[in-house]
What does this fold into?
Amino acid sequence: MAKEHEKDIDFRLMRAIQKGDMVAFNEMVDRYKDRLMNVISRMLSSQEEAEDIVQETFVRVYQHRQSFNFKHCFSTWIYTICLNLARNELRKRKKFKFFDIYDMQGSEREFAVEAKIPTRLPEALDKAIRELPEKYRLAFILRDVEEMAYDEVAKVLSVPLGTVKSRVNRARLMLREKLTPRLEEQHALSKGTLLTAGLL
It folds into this structure.
């Protein structure tokens, strides 16, 4: 028996939710709560704020369940709701968090965590990400963290496809420019430590 496609699962659950099926609603929550938290917790200033936004997102989903259009992806719809709520919060807070990445070469999927990455590096990454303009940060999170297709990111952000690609590439370049000096410094320190220990 063929495995049910993700989009088909969303549609099946959404049809049940529109009929008031709370079991289906809870299943949908389980499918998306971690994904949404993964994005929002890196945008807002606290875990508690992110949890509030995600909770409110599911409240909105249920309240407006009858308005969902099955011509569109459910994932696009729920991310749009969630990001709009987060943007409203960002207008008040303007504080951000982020995650660990190591190498950025500007190509589509070249974001790798280095096994020997210095422990101090995430602090530099956090600072670099916080300094990105919001429009670049959001496009970067959705494309390279959540691994959304470019066209889905375009729908969520309500901008042209070419704009998404441009913003993602620009974000990668800005991060690389900010991080390269720090990476070189850390690699030099690591090499010096190995030399001192007689490992090189």
Remarks:
- The longest strand covers residues 103-104.
